[in-house]
Model the fold of this input.
Amino acid sequence: MSSFAIELKDLRKRFGKTEIIRGASLAVARGERVAIIGPNGAGKSTLFNLISGRLAPTSGEVHLHGRRIDGKPPFEINRLGLARSFQVSNLFTRLSVFENIRCAVLWSLGYRYAFWKFLADLTDANDRTEEVLEMIKLDRRRDVLATNLTYAEQRALEIGVTIAGGADVVLLDEPTAGMSKSETRRFVSLIRDVTAGKTLLTVEHDMGVVFGLADKIAVLVYGEVIAFDAPDAVRANPRVQEAYLGSVLADAQTADASRWQET
Done:
């Protein structure tokens, strides 16, 4: 089995005559937390869509634990151990917190539709649901409808739904977007906890989050990965500074990184 959780090999995606992803290559080791950053229009969401199966590449390859997955539908990729959250919350708003998590748990435990089974009797599914609720710190809100949660709580619930199936590779698309500083700080701590031992890829614009959470940073510019290294090395990379970070931002991250390391 490959030592890499995710491998991209000369990945390309073209829409008509426009090439969005231009030969992106990346190898993410098992258990690494990787942030993908880049200017608007760099192709970050497209890259996530290619990895998770929402889009098929024009050419190139995507491997999950050494197994080629490009072109497979999202549900097959999910069953192979990759789960993804989205920028916009994608929840069953009229179901409770508990019910949202349990929906994600059922399939992973092998349950399919059967009208003669009562959900209350599925002890393993209910126990796993309770475990996830404790992990995301929503156990006291278990009976609240998803629509009545705060924004930060809805994002936490979406994280819970993402990890409930037991995937060992997790993709989070701008998980802290729209949060206050205090909410972001708590949410970063939550992400650390729930992804412990898993491989994490995240697209994130808050550079304090990026430099505080990621083991490595991949910089995507015009559909190409121009740098992939530890945060300090990326911050010091002249090509990255010129293309994206800028000298002012590079200086600012020193304070941000210290702030996140303290949490």
